[in-house]
Amino acid sequence: MSAFFTRARVDRLTPPHYGPPRMAEVKRPLMRGMAEDFRELLAAPRDLWIIYAVKLLESISYFAVLAILILYLHDDLRFSDEMSGLIFGTWGTVVSLLTFLAGFVADAMGQRKALIIAALTAVVGRAMLLGSEVAVLPLTGLIISAWAVASMKPVMTAAIKTHAPAKIRAFAYSIFYVVMNLGAFIANHVVSWLRISLLGRVIRPGEVIDGVGPAPEAARSALTESLIEQFPPEKVVVHSDEAVRAFGRMVTGGRDFEYWTSGDVDLIRAAAEAEALGRELPAAPFGLSGYEMIFAVAAGLAVISLLLLRTLREEKKPALPGGGTGARAVLNQAAKIGVGLFQEKTFWAYLLFICVLVLVRAIFVHAHSTWPTYMIREFGRDTPQAAYWSLNPLLIIFITPVIGSMTSRLSAWSVIMTGSFITAASVLCMVVQHPLEGLAETTLSPLFGDWLDYRVAGPILFIIVLSFGEALWSPRLYEYVAVMAPPGREASYMGLTQLPMFAAKPLVGVMSGFLIAAYSPESGARNTELMWTIIFATTLAGPLIALLFAGVIRAAEKERLAQSSSG
Q1: Which of 20, 102, 240, 433 has the greatest number of C-beta atoms within 10 Å?
Q2: Which residues on neighbouring strands pair with residue 289, listed in sequence order?
Q3: Closest listed residue to residue 460, CA positions, set 482, 480, 430
């Protein structure tokens, strides 16, 4: 049998079995196997469950911030669309770069200390996002929080290897991935609801304590009517007093007409007089916008993470050069670790595999850049493309534990490769979108009539197939990295997995823009089938190249496993 279908007990860190699968290993009923894995997981050390809890809290916080960050930059900090996009993109690139460096630092200082520092920077950085009155404050907060985001993922992933029993390590990584997607699902839905609910409100602590509510509508309307001549509308708008309302939002710190209090009415009147006389406008009372309230929740969750991490048991501290304990000793040791890794032959084979997989992982860059624009231009601006995409984390939550248990006795290599081919195949659903639309309407309309939108059959099937492929390869990639990492170097290897993506993201972004402009323009002829065919080809190239170099990659894996079992 081909080495591609090899069954290796990599979770036990024993040399892989390169022959046909042993029947004793294969014949394990699914439900019984999952029950056994869950029992083992429930009996796992307390520290593993602390990592899961922190991962959930951090995922909710991270995806919540990510969902509204660019809106906050534009609406609260008053940056232009172009500048908001530039800041957002730069922040993401900095996070990717710091992830590469964070692994070395974590291996030098230890996982517990690295996670506590990361949680502390998350608390400080996200709390600084509340200070939108002074733009430099939230921008500084973004820089500080970048270290938290960059450090949390590789260090927590390495901590799973440290604290999970070897027997269920593959399953433990599957649950870790489920927890991350559960956080994403919660953040995308709850934060969307909060953003809309809090839109146009400004939360002022004093008013909440005193129970102050909006002023009577007659008083608010009388104010706007009296100021229309001073602030005439520049064009036809829904409300003739929209310019006054916009001025009021600026003066009150973002509060909409519906929520103006009596104090706001007096403040807006005083500000209008100052504006007419050319004087400086009065400062808005301290308050939190809807976006800032979400940041406050994210900072609060980071505080809980910090408290949980303080209860984490200290693992064996890495020895620093000369017995030093200061920052310089940590940085020197981090540099030594980095140099040492680049001198290892197995490291270069590992890096080759990770670089090749970037072609597969790039589909998620397209999913957040190419796919949304395509959906809006193909099906209309009212298409709920974000709601459609939420099907991905929802599926991951439910199918990953099942797939993880079913494949836990298979080698990480075979599962990753299978998942990569399925991921590539998912793009074909976008290539044949129009035939799938006709097929769905023919087969399903007798049952559902006009209740379903058959036009999106291709995109929906794309998400479903993609999710199954992702559930196979993505959790096992974490395990593969942990297996290939020498003892004490897990975080460094985890961080290095981000280096190829750091280089690829700008290239994929440029490719996405070119494809959209060339094959799915706002107006004119479109050829989206060719666009998705190109994306399919680049995604499929990943597992094909990996198979081409399978001998080198698998030999390095075999060598590392032999070293682990003998050590």
Answers
A1: 102
A2: 202
A3: 430
Cα separations in angstroms, 152 against 101, 117, 536: 12, 10, 32
Are 265 and 220 within 8 A, CB to CB?
A: yes
DSSP state at residue 17: B
CA 136 to CA 140: how far, in whole Å? 6
Residue 245, phi then psi, degrees to nearest 5: -65, -40
Q: What is the DSSP string of 126-193?
A: HHHTT-TTSTHHHHHHHHHHHHHHHHHHHHHHHHHHHHS-GGGHHHHHHHHHHHHHHHHHHHHHHHHH
Average pLDDT, consecutive stretches of 10 residues, N- to C-terminus, the chain (567 residues): 37 36 42 74 89 94 82 76 71 79 78 93 93 83 92 86 83 86 82 68 76 85 82 58 78 79 86 84 76 88 95 68 54 62 72 85 78 80 72 87 81 90 95 88 81 86 94 84 73 69 70 82 84 94 92 81 64
H-type alpha helices, 311-382: 327-342, 345-361, 363-379
Residues 6+ apart with CB under 8 A from 402: 30, 34
In this structure, are residues 543 and 421 in contact, taking their beta carbons and an 8 Å threshold? yes
Domain total in the chain: 3
* 407 & 508 share domain: yes
- Looking at this protein, which amino acid is placed at residue 563? Q
Contact 493, 350 (CB under 8 A): yes
Same domain flag for 407 and 528: yes
Give the CATH number for residue 5.
1.20.1250
Domain boundaries, position 467: 1-15+30-40+344-444+452-567
283 Cβ contact list (under 8 Å, min separation 6): 133
For 70, 158, 190, the CA distances from 196, given in Å and listed in that order, are 15, 37, 10
CATH number at residue 329: 1.20.1250.20
Strand ranges, E, within 237-303: 288-289
Please give the span between the terminal C-alpha atoms of the chain, in angstroms, as a whole number.
30
